[in-house]
Design goal:
single chain, two-stranded antiparallel sheet, 75% helix, mainly alpha, globular, 151 residues
Length: 151
């Protein structure tokens, strides 16, 4: 059926810049969708407008990617070491980076948007924020899997 919709044509390969742009545009759109769905259907997530949610999605994506870079660098450091102590420190440092980063990201959203983006509920909204971030990561993973399965 797809061959009827799209003419058979060889597409040029994409440059690294184009792939980067597409990857992060799609990630921001996924984040935007998840944020707005939570805003629409969960009273613990309050976002004033679509534009604010777009800016929040961009900020979230940037900070999540920085978190992943930092976590991988720390993990690679401990991977180069041998022994049980290095493995334990790798797990503990990974957990610490992932948890502390959520506090930093939540505070960055707080500073950037104030009352225009609110996560309320247990532990000053931290639990709700973590649920939103986990949902975003799951949604990004699912979209990525679907995209790769189409190749």
């Amino acid at each position: 059926m797809i061959k009827k919709i799209l003419p058979e044509k060889q597409f040029d390969s994409h440059t690294n810049h184009q792939q980067f742009f597409m990857r992060y545009t799609l990630a921001v759109l996924v984040d935007l969708t998840v944020l707005n769905l939570f805003d629409e259907f969960w009273s613990h997530v309050l976002i004033d407008s679509f534009l604010i949610s777009l800016f929040a999605a961009i900020l979230l994506q940037i900070l999540l990617q920085l978190t992943i870079i930092i976590e991988h660098r720390i993990a690679n450091y401990f991977k180069s070491k041998s022994g049980i102590k290095a493995k334990v420190l790798r797990v503990l440092s990974t957990w610490a980076v992932l948890f502390i980063s959520k506090l930093i990201i939540l505070e960055a959203i707080n500073i950037s948007f104030g009352d225009q983006v609110l996560f309320t509920g247990p532990v000053h909204g931290l639990v709700v924020f973590i649920v939103v971030v986990i949902t975003i990561l799951i949604a990004e993973y699912i979209i990525t899997r679907i995209y790769k399965s189409l190749a």
